[in-house]
Amino acid sequence: MEAEKIIETKDLTKKFGDFAAVNKISFDVKKGEIFGFLGANGAGKSTAMKMLTGLLTPTSGDAQVAGLNLYTQQEEIKKVIGYMSQKFSLYDDLSLQENIRFFGGIYGLPPKVLQERGDQMIDRLKLTDVKNKLLREVPLGWKQKIAFSVATLHQPKIVFLDEPTGGVDPITRRQFWEMIYEASDNGTTVFVTTHYMDEAEYCDRISIMVQGRIEGYGSTKELKSEFKSQNMDEVFIKLARGENYKLKS
């Protein structure tokens, strides 16, 4: 039986004046999978994600997120997703514990549930000794892990991660992906943008954006086979050169 589709788009477009930042993209994401949204900086990844999270209204096209309409149910969408931006979405002038209380309140978690999940999160990350420190005093790698944990505090159906591993060392990147695997194993769909081609290998399926369009779509195995390439860097280079191929499934 085919997995349930939790995100579906058809010709989704976002224009700023005459410039199409996202140009008629069509794809789907299956429930529980890790979906990679790849491309160079400026390819349109973040703009597409902002539409899917209800932060930007599309210019045209159709899309559903968690069964909700992207045009008419943006506020409902925000309640069932988690979002981690490139800047981690946390407040440096609040402590870890204050950030948890603040975002848990935004997500509408009851006080008792918020307390339990916040304590579990701090224990899991082994951050008991720094829970009352201002976040600006916490190293970047830990901020990243905290931001992801806060974004999933309310157990969303989908978590959107916008360039989550930018600027951190390879070991921290790997640890962060272990957290993504754990979230996926627990039933959360993970939608992640990145410009690191090696991270494509960590995803169940991927799309590759080039100048606002999706030019590659499928599993890394399928794309490497189609382009007769040994790695995803080679696939991306061929796509960027205009060797246009789009896998349909």
From TrEMBL:
<protein>
    <submittedName>
        <fullName>ABC transporter ATP-binding protein</fullName>
    </submittedName>
</protein>
<dbReference type="Pfam" id="PF00005">
    <property type="entry name" value="ABC_tran"/>
</dbReference>
<dbReference type="GO" id="GO:0016887">
    <property type="term" value="F:ATP hydrolysis activity"/>
</dbReference>
<keyword id="KW-0547">Nucleotide-binding</keyword>
<dbReference type="InterPro" id="IPR003593">
    <property type="entry name" value="AAA+_ATPase"/>
</dbReference>
<keyword id="KW-0067">ATP-binding</keyword>
<dbReference type="InterPro" id="IPR027417">
    <property type="entry name" value="P-loop_NTPase"/>
</dbReference>
<dbReference type="InterPro" id="IPR003439">
    <property type="entry name" value="ABC_transporter-like_ATP-bd"/>
</dbReference>
<dbReference type="GO" id="GO:0005524">
    <property type="term" value="F:ATP binding"/>
</dbReference>
<feature type="domain" description="ABC transporter">
    <location>
        <begin position="7"/>
        <end position="236"/>
    </location>
</feature>
